[in-house]
Amino acid sequence: MYMEGRILKGIGGFYYVDTKEGVVECKARGKFRKTIGKPIVGDLVELEVQADGTGYLLEIKSRKNSLIRPAVANLDLVVIVATEAQPKTEPFLIDKVIAIAENKGIDSCVVLNKCDLNDSQELYEIYKSVGIEVFRLSAATGEGVEELRTFLRGKAAAFAGNSGVGKSSLLNRLIPDFAAETGTISDRIGRGRHTTRHVELVPYDGGYIADTPGFSSFDTEQMDLVLREDLQYAFREFEPYLMQCQFTGCAHVKEKGCAIRAAVEAGEIAQSRYDSYVKLYESVKDLKEWKLGKEQKR
Ligand SMILES: Nc1nc2c(ncn2[C@@H]2O[C@H](COP(=O)(O)OP(=O)(O)OP(=O)(O)O)[C@@H](O)[C@H]2O)c(=O)[nH]1
Ligand SMILES: [Zn+2]
């Protein structure tokens, strides 16, 4: 029987596909290996279900977007969990994940957790000024969680955050049996979870949620694939100023007459966001476009 679905997880050559009829365990057999490559979590697939209830993948639909690490496709949203309570989140980490998401055309939002301890006012103001959705909540008390729940409805969202920020507490509040649902998290009694690269989607309220093991999983590897001159577009609040720099091709780092730097001076762009931009700018390699094309085909 022919069906369609979405890959929730892949383990040892088997893919678990969410379909109208439930989850089907599949092997990959399609021709796509030569074109799109290996199936990844989040892929929308066509499958053939056999008499014994197992299936095989026939086709992978073209991806709306995909991340390298965690390897996941077709995300609608990256949710960055952060806090000014302990362990305080460094804005640079938030900005890096936002930049990666923006570069891939994935929307992002910031969730400020532990608001029972600290209202994270500084981070709140920064990300409000950027123009992305910001939520303040407490996974411990439940305050503010419903607003996030509403926002997530129907979306495929990946969660990221520094260790100890309360990501698992929040996921468990959103999906009461989240810990039980994911193999990843059952490893957590040990410290194994932090080294695993495994990513898994859990169906949630018409959408999906992926837990990803910490910020480190959003590796510089994918940042390396951002062309230096594209980085400016990954900071959405820079956009109104980009055409106003004195020199075309302005990198907004040291140049005279830079409208971005003027906007930072005037308090229109947050200093920490600009600092993150400069730090990322220095870190991305001088990739040439042809090399980028080659690497992305790999
Ligand atoms: N006061 C308060 N404590 C919280 C809140 N959310 C989580 N915590 C506590 O913060 C600690 C870390 O929470 P976790 O949910 O394990 O954090 P995590 O981000 O999943 O951390 P890793 O497993 O290291 O990735 C735990 O002791 C939680 O009880 C909150 O909203 N308020
Ligand atoms: Zn400039």
From TrEMBL:
Q: For Zn(2+), which residues are the binding ones?
A: C245, C250, H252, C258
The UniProt entry, under Pfam families, shows: RsgA_GTPase, RsgA_N
Q: List locations, semicolon-separated.
A: Cytoplasm
Residues in CP-type G domain copies: 64-218
Specify the superkingdom: Bacteria
**Enzyme Commission code:** 3.6.1.-
Free-text cofactor note = Binds 1 zinc ion per subunit.
Q: What cofactor does this protein call for?
A: Zn(2+)
One cellular component (GO) term of this entry: cytoplasm
User: Its Gene Ontology biological processes?
Assistant: ribosomal small subunit biogenesis
Q: Which SUPFAM superfamilies match?
A: Nucleic acid-binding proteins (SSF50249), P-loop containing nucleoside triphosphate hydrolases (SSF52540)
GO terms, molecular function: GTP binding; GTPase activity; metal ion binding; rRNA binding
Family annotation (Gene3D superfamilies)? Nucleic acid-binding proteins, P-loop containing nucleotide triphosphate hydrolases, Probable gtpase engc, domain 3
The UniProt entry's sequence similarity note says: Belongs to the TRAFAC class YlqF/YawG GTPase family. RsgA subfamily.
- Outline the subunit composition: Monomer. Associates with 30S ribosomal subunit, binds 16S rRNA.
Q: What does this protein do?
A: One of several proteins that assist in the late maturation steps of the functional core of the 30S ribosomal subunit. Helps release RbfA from mature subunits. May play a role in the assembly of ribosomal proteins into the subunit. Circularly permuted GTPase that catalyzes slow GTP hydrolysis, GTPase activity is stimulated by the 30S ribosomal subunit.
List the protein's name: Small ribosomal subunit biogenesis GTPase RsgA
According to its UniProt entry, this protein's organism is: Butyricicoccus pullicaecorum 1.2
- Quote the gene name from the UniProt entry: rsgA
